[in-house]
Amino acid sequence: MEEDLIKITVTDREGVVHELDAPTDMAMNVMEVCKAHELPVEGTCGGMALCASCHVYVNSDHELSEASDDEEDMLDQAFFVEDNSRLGCQIKIKAELEGLKITLAPVGD
Ligand code: FES
User: What percent of the chain has pLDDT over 90?
Assistant: First the structure.
């Protein structure tokens, strides 16, 4: 079922680029897709916008849903936040995100 998969490109913390297949019909988010491909994304809170361990930078100009207040609050407390910072768990995989490019943010100690 080709049409139910999109490709997203994830650059890991070592600068290695991964092209991942992401299903659009399983209500997955970017954090879950990264984990499913064994990239080093913790997703400690399970996608509740409560931990920022899924912090990513969005490098393509896809239209994303607005960050919720919870996401903004979490990003306020995260390390290495940039203008294009988002929480991966708050980016839902959908067909419009074909070709999305993100970079995993560094982890703060
Ligand atoms: Fe915790 Fe995204 S997994 S904020």
Answer: 94
Atom number of ligand 1 nearest to Cα 89: 2
Domain parsing of the chain, residue ranges = 2-104
Q: What is the mean pLDDT of residues 79-94?
A: 97
User: Does the beta carbon of 91 lie inside 6 Å of ligand 1?
Assistant: no
Distance 46 CA to ligand 1 centre (A): 6
Cβ neighbours around 87 below 10 Å, total? 30
Q: For the segment 17-53, what is each residue's pLDDT rounded down to a tens digit? A: 999 999 999 999 999 999 999 999 999 999 999 999 9
CA-proximal residue: ligand 1, atom 4 (nearest) = 49
Select the CATH number that applies to the domain covering 2-104 from these four: 3.40.50.1220, 3.40.50.800, 3.10.20.30, 3.40.30.10. 3.10.20.30
Burial 26-59 (b: 16+ CB within 10 A, else e): eebbbbbbbbeeebebebebebebebbbbbbbbe
Q: How far is the CA of 90 from the centre of ligand 1 (A)?
A: 8
